[in-house]
Amino acid sequence: MAHALEEVAVAFSRMNRRTAELSEKNGMPFRKPGDKGARPTDVTETMVAGASAATVTVEWDADQAVTQLYAAHYRPLVRLATLLVRDFATAEEVVQDAFVAMHGAWRRLRDPNKALSYLRQSVVNRARSVLRHRAVVEKHAPKALPDAPSAEHGALGELERAAVIEALRTLPTRQREAIVLRYYGDFSEAQIADAMGISRGAVKSHTARGISALRSVLEQTT
């Protein structure tokens, strides 16, 4: 238990540094959620926008709530993000930024009891942004000789050599997200719909098409 609390404390230290970095990057001073004039600075604001301060009742302290969420869900969210962005270090950054945004926007959440749903949606949205940015960079980047693989890269390579992981890379984004959330994240259809911002019917459609495409790719490689 003590070790787990120590991990959470270290993680919050990293999150606070990340918050300061994001605030400085956006040209805004960092304010704690309780400070007058505090406001979220990124995508989480979109998820909680429209909540009236007069109608929102916050019963949980932000630090306490986010600490509990972090202890329970950080690692599963990193595993999920890794499958989406295919890079462990980037996945950690995606999830840490989602927690930072959650902390900063806590008083503006429409329903604090759905905080985990907001976190999942934030992770999925950030993963999409990473992939869009990566696609633009790769499109315009000059071809270069590959670097010598590091030990970390070699460890990840063991996972990426799996046929299913490789096949997932070939799927359209929405199909890949639906399959990863369903079969790797063990989400329900309703949870997937919340995380992806689509209807349950669309979840079924993306999942079915993704499975069909995945089966086709795997049959060609075996």
TrEMBL record:
Gene Ontology terms, MF aspect: DNA binding; sigma factor activity
RNA polymerase sigma-70 region domain location: 69-134
Keywords, comma-separated and alphabetical: DNA-binding, Sigma factor, Transcription, Transcription regulation
GO biological process, one term: DNA-templated transcription initiation
Protein name from the UniProt record: RNA polymerase sigma-70 factor (Sigma-E family)
Domain of life: Bacteria
Family affiliation: Belongs to the sigma-70 factor family. ECF subfamily.
Entries under Pfam families matching the protein: Sigma70_r2, Sigma70_r4_2
Location of the RNA polymerase sigma factor 70 region 4 type domain: 162-213
CDD domains to which the protein is assigned, alphabetical: Sigma70_r4 (cd06171)
UniProt keyword Transcription regulation, yes or no: yes
Species name: Spinactinospora alkalitolerans
